[in-house]
């Protein structure tokens, strides 16, 4: 059971690294919403600051995936923990249950509490992976049978598509209609 939990922590850590690579790339392209989020919580809100954060996210995520070094895992965990703290500041200052944080360069609103739960899960996984000796995704893929490597990459991609679908789902919806509103692509007609 312990080895299963450690392997699960590795997979979640790799997924978290993939997310910050994607988030960093998208914030480099569209930093304005993230700058607005920083301003709402009382931090300096320059586009340059957001781009620097995005570059650090990209570097940390790639380092986790390629090297798996403890330092990279700790930097990624610190990035996630800092974002979690920013979400808590936002929640305390505004009381709003949805946030347009610009994580992925867009102004879509996401539920704050669910965002915090995901952030906490990834922080724990990154820390466990840093503390307990493990390998990078690149090393695991190279050392695993091709069929299992393809399955692992497919499952990571499927999880990423699921998160992106969640991000693309309409915000501020009632709990009863939330499941029916979920979609990966916008509805026909541009709405």
How are the SSEs ordered, and which strands pair?
Blueprint: H1 2-29, H2 32-40, H3 47-66, H4 70-94, E1 98-99, E2 110-111, H5 112-131, H6 137-143, H7 146-168, H8 175-181
Antiparallel strand pairs: 1-2
Helix pairs in contact: 1-3, 1-5, 3-4, 4-5
Characterise the protein shown here:
- The protein is mostly helical and 191 residues long.
- The chain has one domain.
- Helices cover 73% and strands 2% of the residues.
- The protein is built from 8 helices and 2 strands; from the N terminus they run H-H-H-H-E-E-H-H-H-H.
- A two-stranded antiparallel sheet has the order 1-2.
- Helix 1 runs antiparallel to helix 3, helix 1 packs across helix 5 and helix 3 crosses helix 4.
- The longest helix is centred in the N-terminal third of the chain and has 28 residues, at 2-29.
- The chain is elongated, with a radius of gyration of 17 Å.
Beta-strand content bin:
under 5%
Let me know the largest β-sheet. Answer: 2 strands, antiparallel
Mean pLDDT: 81
Which radius of gyration do the C-alpha atoms yield? 17 Å
**Poorly predicted segments:** 170-187
* SSE series: HHHHEEHHHH
| Helix and strand composition category | mainly alpha
Number of domains: 1
Gap between N and C termini, in Å? 46 Å
Notable traits:
mainly alpha; 191 residues; two-stranded antiparallel ribbon
Quick recap:
This protein is an all-alpha fold. It contains eight helices and two strands. The chain has one domain.
